[in-house]
Amino acid sequence: MFVGTITFDLLLGDVHSLKQKRAVVRPVVAELRRRFDVAAAEVGHQDLHRRAEVGVAVVAGDSRQCIDVLDAVEQHVADRPEIELLSTRRRIHNDEDEE
After folding, report:
1. Domain that holds residue 85
2. What is the CATH number of the domain that holds 16?
3. How would you write the pLDDT of the chain (99 residues) with one tens digit per residue?
4. From which domain of life does this come (predicted)?
5. What stretches of 1-85 show up as alpha helix (H) in DSSP?
6. Core vs surface per residue 5-21: b (16+ CB within 10 A) or e
7. How far apart are the first and last CA of the chain?
8. Is residue 64 in a domain?
9. Is residue 74 part of a domain?
10. Would you say residue 34 lies in a domain?
């Protein structure tokens, strides 16, 4: 079993409040869940209105499948016009990894 994770550091466009931030971030997270069948959530920068950190995880039987899903998720986020992708962090975990 493999678990792939990716975290996105995002800069939001014309957002001036936390309420406006939620209106941008929630639909992105919901679409990632629905479209790619992954776990996704806002995981950081909750107190900043123009920044967001979104984490995504996928479980698969082989690492290639994890990589393919994470590639598609990253491309989808990068293509969103209302957000700027500042950076990503990606890891693939194997159930045989030492703790």
Report:
1. 2-94
2. 3.30.70.1120
3. 999 999 999 999 889 999 999 999 999 999 999 999 999 999 998 899 899 999 999 999 999 999 999 999 999 999 999 999 999 999 999 987 665
4. Bacteria
5. 18-36, 63-78
6. bbbbbbebeebeeeeeb
7. 15
8. yes
9. yes
10. yes
Query: Positive or negative CA dihedral for 71, 25, 21, 46?
Result: negative
Length of the chain equals 99
Domain count, the chain: 1
Return the bridge partners of 52, or none: 10
| pTM for this prediction | 0.90
Q: What are the tokens at 1?
A: 């079993």
In this structure, which amino acid lies at residue 32?
L
C-alpha–C-alpha distance, residues 87 and 14, integer Å: 19
Give the whole-angstrom CA distance, residue 60 versus residue 94: 10
